[in-house]
């Protein structure tokens, strides 16, 4: 089960560094394994490699060669078959609607409409879009993307009214730390230099310009955050019980006079060829 949870997490979008760090830390603690130099080299290569289930499964089995190797080999084969992966160069895209007025979005040709808005579920899960191509409709009308999608990686699209262009925000992550969670903040309030703070405590992100994003690794602890535009402060938003490797986003929406902080856990849909 432990091996399965690690590979499941990797297939949902953990970076190579996070996957390897968590795997190494987990099995050093659990089995007291000392890795030989040849396998440490494999680890270093895996740190920057895109995830491929068979390759990472094979690496995991090699690392556990003296510890129930046959059992873990079978699990690795199972994981390679269960979790299909998109083509190289695919970009993972989600759509966020900062307005309290919900819209229906269709991300991808023939996709099922999803209702999103700041008063409820603010955004979609990440979805792999092969080749950087993107078909997006908002309330049944084609949407124009204001910007170029990167080759690979993660992107958040900020939706506006139907027919309006959609802003691209590239979701870059801090240096991976398999023992921590990741918190990202988006300032979607016009004319506001935002601060995201621990409620009643220190600033987590300061001077966040409108339309921008910041991210950092955090200890997976319980906390409540608020967002401020100058003297105007949002109601507190409680973080869920995050675990190591989780990624969570908060979005400051509304107006500079009445900001609102909304959160969602980052999730990635399983890949299905369409």
UniProtKB/TrEMBL annotation:
Any matching Pfam family: AlgF
Domain of life per record: Bacteria
A Gene Ontology term for the protein's cellular component: periplasmic space
Keyword Ligase: no
Keywords carried by this UniProt record: Alginate biosynthesis, Periplasm, Signal, Transferase
Keyword Signal: yes
Main location class: periplasm
Family, as annotated: Belongs to the AlgF family.
Protein name: Alginate biosynthesis protein AlgF
């Amino acid at each position: 089960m432990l091996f399965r949870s690690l590979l499941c997490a990797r297939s949902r979008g953990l970076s190579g560094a996070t996957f390897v760090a968590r795997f190494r830390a987990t099995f050093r603690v659990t089995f007291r394994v000392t890795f030989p130099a040849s396998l440490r080299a494999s680890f270093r290569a895996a740190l920057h490699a895109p995830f491929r289930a068979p390759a990472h499964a094979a690496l995991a089995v090699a690392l556990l060669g003296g510890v129930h190797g046959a059992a873990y080999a079978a699990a690795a084969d199972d994981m390679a078959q269960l979790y299909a992966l998109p083509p190289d160069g695919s970009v993972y895209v989600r759509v966020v609607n900062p307005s309290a007025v919900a819209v229906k979005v269709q991300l991808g040709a023939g996709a099922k409409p999803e209702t999103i808005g700041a008063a409820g579920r603010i955004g979609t899960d990440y979805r792999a879009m092969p080749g950087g191509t993107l078909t997006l409709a908002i309330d049944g009308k084609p949407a124009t993307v204001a910007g170029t999608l990167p080759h690979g990686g993660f992107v958040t699209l900020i939706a506006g009214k139907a027919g309006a262009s959609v802003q691209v925000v590239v979701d870059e992550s801090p240096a991976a730390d398999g023992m921590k969670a990741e918190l990202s903040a988006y300032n979607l309030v016009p004319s506001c230099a935002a601060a995201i703070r621990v409620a009643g405590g220190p600033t987590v992100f300061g001077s966040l310009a409108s339309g921008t994003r910041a991210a950092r690794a955090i200890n997976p602890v319980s906390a409540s955050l608020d967002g401020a535009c100058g003297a105007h402060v949002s109601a507190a938003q409680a973080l869920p019980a995050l675990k190591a490797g989780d990624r969570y986003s908060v979005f400051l929406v509304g107006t500079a006079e009445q900001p609102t902080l909304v959160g969602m856990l980052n999730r990635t849909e399983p890949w299905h060829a369409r």
